[in-house]
Automatic annotation (TrEMBL):
InterPro entries: Ribosyl_crysJ1 (IPR005502), Ribosyl_crysJ1_sf (IPR036705). Keywords: Hydrolase, Magnesium, Metal-binding. Gene3D superfamilies: ADP-ribosylation/Crystallin J1, Exo-inulinase, domain 1, Galactose-binding domain-like. It comes from the Bacteria. Binds 2 magnesium ions per subunit. Pfam families: ADP_ribosyl_GH. Mg(2+) binds at residues 60-61, 285, 287. GO terms for molecular function: hydrolase activity; metal ion binding. Its cofactor is Mg(2+). SUPFAM superfamilies: ADP-ribosylglycohydrolase (SSF101478). The keyword Hydrolase applies. This is ADP-ribosylglycohydrolase.
Length: 713
């Protein structure tokens, strides 16, 4: 099969596939590692989600795909991408030793082993090779669980999917571990254009060696299915006997779990719900296996094949745990656009006009164009009535642009109360009832930025209604409001709000408040479209007024911050950072920020290296400036290692407070100390032009950061 054109419904199929992935992770999450017998005794026949979550926390199965795919943005989307570049992507986006993966130990966890290899300079593909790590480590399950996106970007082209997948999987896996990734990616690519699951599996078999253990197992399970098509439970006994955990080394070998995937695909006969339920009931690495079959059958069936009961609890929300806090709160339509953009780029085709601005990122942030999408919007109100029902749903009834909008319904409202629809722009531990893979966040929105939307009061609503944009500072539990507008029924109204400059704020919600000025138990129906926000922030934080966020005894985070490595806490009214050698780094702000000024009060405590950062794009891409050595002020560029760009003599002392500032404008960086300009440097060598702010030290140093501010340059 070759890919001469894109499927007409490509974007919707990507959405369905990624929904299937996320549904699968959630479905299997809380019984991961259970045996078939435990699941059967506890649940019997499974037909729906087993656990209810406030919001489902981060998981390695979704962390890996969304962040490894960023190699195509950071390097090249072509087949010229190398395993070494994908390995560098690991180092850039994964926190060191916490979150993201299972950090089970070198030689125990394959991902931990590969990460440590990469960090020590053993580049991919050697980092994941049998030669380096041995077959037991290299053939664990991770080669296939992080691989789905490579099939989603190569629709109808299994061999191209396998080519990308081989490079990605080889960062950490080899042998059957690598072949499993190639097989799954090829099946996903095939599912865009095939009609039956048998055809999909046969296409997957074409991209792996005919005589490898994975291929032998797949053909064996297919032969059993041909002779015993009635009972999947009988088939599992066959799998357990011939390909069970007891036959393979390590904690989670790929072959037993791949066997469960093949079994569930065959006996599920392509049906989404039946397939993921069978896969979950088999046990072993449930979240990983159910996620892979969820992607395959999600693409195969499309959105219409995924029952709303699977979609609704997700709320279109995906939690992650990278070093980029604003990327740890994704909505699934954003993921879809990010993935699909590479699909068209690889095919060297222009997206259809209706998707072009969305995939290019020039449309409003929240567009509601994907069927059923809500972009994780939620509702609340001041109304004390307990019998009010509020819903958000995707609608083709109205649209300001495109074909769809968000329909917001309150079934009974009263005059004088506020009724709100909003996007959550920051999450705290109380927003979750689990803590898997250590998520941490930086707000999506900041003081000084702008929020706007288009809204329309339904034509049949007769009560007078006013509306205004708002943001909520969750530190102060206070809403800040934009101008109030009286709505006219059946008329689109533009709302906008320039958020004022604020100190010590944490913007946790952004949305629209509706206030009926009359009515009692009347319905309220509003259509919302083209919600957007952005701009340069203007804000300041005093760490003496921030808080530690407690998830569990070994997972505590400084509010609004993520960190790469080191010990970061709040102490004596300051952010305190330290580590024993390598750079300790802590970040906040947005990856999207471009030109700005970062100013911080820095107090060296011990050691000789005390820095602040700008244009942070991850753990191996940033600028930093500050004290380095006994009498130096240095500007660094981090390119998988710090390199001096400029240095001046500068006397400094321990326990003294210094105001350190970096101004980033275009490719020019200006470093100011206590109001005196000390360094000006133009970076003409692949400059970093956007990114977060941060705090850093190295070589056993410890630093206090009392406060900081971000402003326009």
């Amino acid at each position: 099969m070759t890919n001469h054109s894109m499927p007409e419904n490509y974007v919707e199929k990507v959405y369905a596939g990624w929904l299937g992935k996320v549904i699968g992770v959630r479905h299997g999450g809380n019984i991961e590692g259970w045996t078939y017998e435990q699941i059967e005794r506890t649940y019997g026949e499974i037909s729906t989600y087993l656990h209810q979550f406030i919001n489902f926390a981060a998981d390695d199965d979704t962390n890996g795909p969304m962040f490894f795919l960023r190699a195509l943005e950071d390097y090249t989307h072509t087949t010229g991408i190398t395993p070494e570049q994908i390995g560098l992507t690991w180092l850039n986006y994964a926190p060191d030793g916490h979150g993201f993966y299972w950090w089970g130990g070198y030689g125990v966890s394959t991902e931990h082993t590969a990460y440590m290899n990469l960090k020590s300079g053993i580049t991919a593909p050697r980092s994941g090779s049998i030669e380096q790590n041995g077959a037991a480590v290299a053939e664990q399950i991770g080669g296939q669980i992080f691989i789905d996106v490579w099939g989603l970007i190569t629709p109808g082209n299994p061999r191209l999917a396998a080519e990308y997948a081989e490079k990605a999987a080889s960062v950490s896996h080899d042998g059957n571990g690598k072949y499993g990734g190639m097989f799954i990616a090829a099946c996903i690519a095939s599912a865009f254009v095939r009609k039956t699951i048998g055809e999909v599996i046969r296409d997957g078999l074409q991209v792996i060696p005919e005589f490898c253990e994975l291929s032998r197992m797949i053909r064996h399970v297919m032969e059993f299915h041909q002779l015993h098509q009635g009972s999947w439970r009988e088939a599992f006994e066959f799998v357990k006997e011939n390909y069970g955990y007891h036959l393979y080394p390590g904690n989670c070998h790929i072959i037993p779990n791949s066997a469960v995937i093949i079994l569930s695909l065959l006996y599920g006969e392509g049906d989404f719900s039946r397939t993921i339920n069978i896969c979950n009931m088999c046990g072993w690495d449930t979240d990983c296996n159910v996620a892979n079959v969820g992607t395959i059958t999600g693409v195969l069936n499309g959105l219409s094949g995924i029952d709303e009961s699977w979609r609704q609890p997700l709320h279109d929300f995906l939690c992650c745990s990278s070093v980029i806090g604003t990327l740890n709160m994704m909505d699934l339509p954003w993921c879809t656009a990010y993935i699909a953009r590479f699909g068209y780029a690889i095919a060297e085709l222009e997206p259809p006009e209706r998707w072009k601005s969305i995939l290019e990122g020039t449309s409003a942030r929240f567009h509601f164009e994907l069927p059923g999408s809500t972009h994780a919007f939620r509702t609340d109100s001041d109304d004390p009535s307990r019998n009010i029902t509020a819903t958000v749903g995707n609608s083709t009834e109205e649209a300001y642009s495109g074909e769809r909008s968000l329909k917001v319904t309150f079934d009974r409202v009263k005059g004088g109360y506020g009724y709100r629809v909003f996007h959550q722009t920051y999450y705290r531990p109380e927003d979750f009832n689990d803590s898997r893979y250590d998520p941490a966040f930086s707000p999506l929105l900041y003081p000084g930025q702008r929020v706007e939307s288009q809204i329309k009061l339904a034509s049949y609503i007769s009560i007078p209604v006013k509306a205004r944009m708002f943001v909520k500072d969750v530190n102060e539990d206070r809403r800040h409001y934009g101008p109030t507008v009286e709505l006219e029924p059946d008329t689109w109204t533009h709302l906008a709000f320039d958020i004022p400059k604020l100190g010590n704020a944490c913007i946790g919600q952004a949305g629209i408040e509706f206030v009926p000025s009359a009515g009692r138990n009347s319905p309220l129906v509003i259509y919302v479209d083209d919600v957007d926000y952005g701009g340069t922030p203007e804000y300041s934080i005093d760490f003496g007024r921030e808080r530690m966020e407690y998830w569990n005894p070994v997972h505590m985070e400084v509010s609004q911050c993520t960190y790469l490595r080191g010990y970061w806490t709040l102490e004596n009214g300051a952010l305190s950072g330290s580590y024993n050698g390598e750079p300790a780094e802590c970040y906040t702000g947005s990856l999207e920020w471009r030109d700005y000024v970062m100013k911080a009060v820095v107090q060296p405590k011990t050691g000789l290296h005390h820095l602040i950062q700008v244009r942070v794009q991850g753990g191996i891409h940033s600028y930093a400036a500050g004290f380095s050595g006994e009498s130096k002020l240095v500007l660094y560029k981090n390119e998988n290692g710090y390199r001096e760009l400029a240095v001046v003599e500068c006397e400094w002392e321990f326990d003294c407070e210094y105001e350190l500032e970096i101004r980033a404008a275009g490719n020019e960086l200006t470093v100011t100390l206590d109001g005196i300009k000390r360094i000006k440097y133009a970076d003409d060598d692949h400059p970093y032009l956007h990114g977060q702010i941060g705090f850093a030290n190295m070589k056993g140093s410890r630093t206090y950061y009392k406060r900081f501010a971000v402003s326009q340059p």
